[in-house]
Amino acid sequence: MTLSERIDSLSQLGTQWSSTDFDVESIFRLANHQNNWFTTASLQQALDGVLVFLKPEVLTNWTNEYKIADIASKRVGVVMAGNIPMVGFHDWLCVLVCGHTLHAKLSSQDQVLIKALSNSLIAIDNRWKEKIIFTERLNDVDAIIATGSDNSARYFHYYFANKPHIIRKNRNSIAVLTGEETPEQIQRLGTDIFSYYGLGCRSVSKIYVPQNFTVAQVYDHLESFHGVLDNHKYQNNYDYNRSILLLNKTVHFDNGFLLMVESTDLVSPIGVLYFERYQNLETLSLYLESQREKIQVIATHSPLFVGAVDFGNTQFPNIMDYADGVDTIDFLLHLS
What's the predicted TM-score (pTM) here? Predict the structure, then answer.
């Protein structure tokens, strides 16, 4: 298949899944049955992000940034996470648009969606059948892209040490508030916090606030997200973490669906948002730069933080926003 043929069939996939005639609801039901974190709202948000990537003009402009057409096809193993719906889609897309053969090891928590997309793509052009392989073992591949925890990353580094690889560890996202945010900006921050129930690496798990900041400045504008409690898994996590805080007599704030705890840690449990006070933005900017390997996205309206996004945008990357800042296409084009 030529690059233009690959782009054409991928854009047809986007058109098909965007159609009101396409039965996406039955696929959503299967995905939710497998993983109760995958609610209809979460699945639709993830799908909307995927469909943006599959627009023909987006695919064309993206691939025009590289010299893709004449590369030799390789077998690329991709170990996909399952923390949020279709989290492995961008790697799936990168491998296929480059013309490589995908050997995908799916997470047990996200078996439905990528397979459904792949089946649709094969139905559009049967030549994809030879380019998309689902497997439990990745012994016979030329390169590896693996996403997992810090513990699994150590295993991946050891097991795939002799193959070209991209191996990703745990990352979380943070927000920096100046104290001058509008109610609308705090509401948009709520999208960064609560989308996918805080399970994604682009979910804000901690906020940095000025010394005189009060928790009410956040809580007063998050009430519209009370519906997260409708998911029993979120409620169970919230109740459990609240009990632990009470048992340990840890100072915390509670609005009935989100616990806020002052902490120097970056990664908070589900249902908990950490906050830390800073003295000045310049010092904080230098500190966060030193922590870049642990941070996926910074949300703020301060211009001091290079590469940061505005509130409400952490969960909506564009097609050139590569995980951990590693250009996946560049990696795939230089496999020898």
Answer: 0.94
